[in-house]
Recover the amino acids of this structure.
């Protein structure tokens, strides 16, 4: 109908404008707000789409976390290690053995740690806070090396 | 006052240490990376197992760094031979040594030089196409292989020895290695460690891969696991999960399906604990190995700090292949650079080489040859931070202009050395990927330096000739 066509014509330029301005214009109501605390203790607030992983968000928003996501979300490293508060951690859903295997190697592992590439955004996680821990070193070290 | 020249640093070595150091410095510095081989990426290309392609994704980050306007790659340059460290120090404000560990720790036992004994470094280099390991031709005609060491490299070797060929043929393993493994008679691999299950150095992902390896079944010694169950409750989660998986694999009676799978398996693998090599035993003709003599140990102390103590007993194991996976080792590059031969590292504080202003180090050369790519990443960022600190504080003088690659390129040309640029590498990369296409592999690696140089340097000549012939037609 004419009404629907107008509605679509109206949305298109506004969406383009949103892309141009970045995610600070809250037009698309299904976006999820994510807060990252970086290694300097600064809070960075961005938005992601439901279904995006936290690694996707870091990449899409061009967040400058040194060395984050080295293996590009394939569960072959632990550099996207993030720490959550208890409340949020419980909302994050189950963790697979494969994720835990890699998470176990993360530096500064806590009981509320997860790998960012495995956490997918949903509306229920709106406003979540994820802390980027101090170091991204993987602790895999062969003990029969020198020193 | 605007500074028209950004400070210039050169990095020796293009593996993860070199590239991560570059990644951090590129924000402010002009970075030139020198690499002995025509191809970059070090152990990411030559160390990471062919069936772990995701681990190699870091190459994408490194490629981004290499293509940065302030970064240049110079392959086919042997620092120490084609150009000295002193000459580099004259040309650059700072020099970072990131050339890793190309030697290996020897077992130090008689018979180590017999045919049939290899270092894991060479074995891995062989199946990964490291030019210097091309002639290794390991003899895989025996039934039993013994691997000394129980770190992730040892598990990689075991897995490659026992993986079904159908899996390996889809990876970037070299063609000669694939053919040799297809003919391999090896059916049993023992992975031997000095200490006990709780001290094992491998990590859970690699152990899980062995447990789930098609057409294989585990073969452990139940007695090795006495006292392990009681120790479980005090272990931190990562160690606990690893130990639980080992216990389950070694002691638990499998369900019907798993029982059937195991009974059909044609290959076995297992850990042997509390064993140290004392002698490699030769056949009567003394030309090949017949087995290995292992000393039996007991543990003193517990946890990570427990150490192995000889009991005086020994045990002989028949085998035709021994792979020693007890650690890589760095080598000195230039007499002008301090080197700690006991620890086999360059003496340094936070990456600053001791008693050598303007000289830094990162990666395994700095801390010893342990740790994965992400460990090296952190290590390299730390060194880069030291450099930046020194520049900010004035400890490192960057006020005087330095010629950088201009003078080094001139020197190399005079000496008849033709560096391979990053876009030259991309030609090698394309050739390898194209070659791999027809056999369903991600790439078919070029196996000699000569071939690499031909494709890198003559590619342009060939393309030019092609276009000339097109015009003539």
């Amino acid at each position: 109908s004419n009404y629907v066509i107008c509605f679509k014509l109206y949305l298109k330029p506004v969406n383009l404008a949103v892309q141009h301005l970045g995610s600070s214009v809250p037009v698309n109501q299904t976006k999820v707000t994510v807060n990252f605390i970086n290694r300097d203790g600064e809070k960075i607030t961005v938005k992601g789409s439901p279904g995006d992983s936290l690694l996707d968000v870091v990449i899409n928003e061009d967040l400058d976390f040194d060395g984050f996501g080295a293996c590009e979300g394939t569960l072959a490293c632990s550099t996207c290690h993030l720490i959550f508060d208890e409340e949020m951690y419980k909302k994050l859903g189950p963790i697979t053995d494969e994720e835990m295997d890699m998470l176990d190697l993360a530096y500064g592992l806590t009981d509320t740690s997860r790998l960012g590439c495995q956490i997918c955004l949903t509306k229920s996680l709106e406003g979540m806070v994820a802390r980027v821990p101090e170091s991204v070193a993987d602790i895999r070290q062969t003990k029969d090396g020198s020193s | 006052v605007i500074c028209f020249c950004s400070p210039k640093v050169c990095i020796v070595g293009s593996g993860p240490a070199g590239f991560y150091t570059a990644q951090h410095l590129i924000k402010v510095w002009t970075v030139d990376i020198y690499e002995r081989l025509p191809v970059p990426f070090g152990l990411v290309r030559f160390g990471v197992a062919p069936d772990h392609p995701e681990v190699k994704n870091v190459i994408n980050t490194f490629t981004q760094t290499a293509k940065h306007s302030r970064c240049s790659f110079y392959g086919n340059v042997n620092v120490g031979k084609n150009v000295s460290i002193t000459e580099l120090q004259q040309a650059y404000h700072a020099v970072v040594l990131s050339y890793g560990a190309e030697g290996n720790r020897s077992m130090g036992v008689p018979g180590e030089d017999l045919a049939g004994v290899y270092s894991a470094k060479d074995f891995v280099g062989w199946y990964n196409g490291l030019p210097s390991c091309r002639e290794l031709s390991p003899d895989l005609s025996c039934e039993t292989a013994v691997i000394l060491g129980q770190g992730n490299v040892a598990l990689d070797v075991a897995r490659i020895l026992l993986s079904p060929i159908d899996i390996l043929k889809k990876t970037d393993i070299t063609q000669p290695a694939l053919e040799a493994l297809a003919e391999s008679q090896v059916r049993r691999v023992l992975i031997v460690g000095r200490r006990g299950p709780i001290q094992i150095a491998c990590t859970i992902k690699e152990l899980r891969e062995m447990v789930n390896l098609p057409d294989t079944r585990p073969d452990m010694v139940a007695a090795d696991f006495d006292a392990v169950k009681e120790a479980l409750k005090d272990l931190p989660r990562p160690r606990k999960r690893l130990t639980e998986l080992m216990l389950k694999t070694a002691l638990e009676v499998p369900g019907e399906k798993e029982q059937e799978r195991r009974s059909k398996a044609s290959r076995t693998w297992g850990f042997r604990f509390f064993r140290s090599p004392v002698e490699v035993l030769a056949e009567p003709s003394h030309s090949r190995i017949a087995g290995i003599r292992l000393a039996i140990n007991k543990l003193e102390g517990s946890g990570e700090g427990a150490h192995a103590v000889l009991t005086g007993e020994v045990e002989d194991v028949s085998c035709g292949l021994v792979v020693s996976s007890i650690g890589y080792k760095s080598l000195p590059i230039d007499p002008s650079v301090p080197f700690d031969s006991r620890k086999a590292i360059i003496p340094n504080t936070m990456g600053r080489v001791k008693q050598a202003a303007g000289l830094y180090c990162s990666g395994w050369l700095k801390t010893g040859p342990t740790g994965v790519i992400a460990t090296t990443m952190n290590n390299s960022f730390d060194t880069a931070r030291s450099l930046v600190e020194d520049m900010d504080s004035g400890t490192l003088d960057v006020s005087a202009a330095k010629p950088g690659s201009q003078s080094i390129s001139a020197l190399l040309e005079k000496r008849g050395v033709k560096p391979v640029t990053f876009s030259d590498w991309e030609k090698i990369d394309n050739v390898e990927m194209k070659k791999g296409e027809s056999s369903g592999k991600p790439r078919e690696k070029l196996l000699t330096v000569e071939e690499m140089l031909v494709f890198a340097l003559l590619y342009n000549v060939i393309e030019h000739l092609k276009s000339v012939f097109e015009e003539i037609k």
Notes: Chain A has four helices and five strands. Chain A has a mean pLDDT of 80.
